[in-house]
Design brief:
63% of the residues lie in helices and 0% in strands. The protein is mainly alpha-helical and 156 residues long. It has a single domain, classed as Ferritin (Up-down Bundle), CATH 1.20.1260. α1 packs antiparallel against α6, α2 crosses α6 and α4 packs across α6. The longest helix is centred in the first third of the chain and has 31 residues.
């Protein structure tokens, strides 16, 4: 169970959603879960990059492909470590118009096929954060929550 500083951080994130116009607890949980999943994907990609660099070999498994999506946006912009530094309006565009479609379709194909468990759960993934300011605020706040502890991940 989370206590102390981490609990206060999570409470502030919930308050931000509430004051930002999302009062349905299930929707808040859904959006936090998607954002934490995106953060974790970037962590896994970074681990694979580090491994490939250390071994001086090409990456075996890329989560974020090289190149651009069908709308011309670099896949590298979909990474948490990258878009968290964007201006709120650009971050909102990347997450809503590029990253969520990538999660629903492209990543599902990459992880196997359209019948995978991932594809089943992500086919209806919706980005419902209403404003760029709220997204930027929540991303910044989630970025400061230490996620190394497995218990923290579950409690959040």
């Amino acid at each position: 169970m989370i206590t102390g500083d981490i609990k206060n951080q999570i409470d502030r994130i919930w308050d931000s959603f509430w004051s930002g116009g999302i009062s349905n607890p299930l929707e808040v949980i859904e959006q936090i879960t998607y954002l934490l999943f995106i953060r974790r994907l970037d962590d896994l990609h970074q681990l694979e990059e580090n491994r490939a660099n250390r071994l001086k070999q090409p990456m075996e498994r890329r989560i974020f492909p090289a190149g651009n999506d069908s709308k011309g946006r670099p896949y590298q912009d979909f990474r948490w470590s990258r878009f968290k530094h964007f201006a709120p309006a650009e971050m909102f565009t990347v997450v809503g118009e590029h990253l969520f479609p990538f999660l629903r379709a492209d990543l599902a194909r990459q992880l196997g096929n359209g019948d995978s468990t991932y594809a089943h759960h992500m086919k209806d993934a919706r980005f419902t954060i209403p404003t760029p300011a709220l997204l930027a605020k929540v991303v910044d706040m989630l970025d400061h929550v230490p996620m190394e502890d497995r218990d923290t991940k579950g409690d959040v």
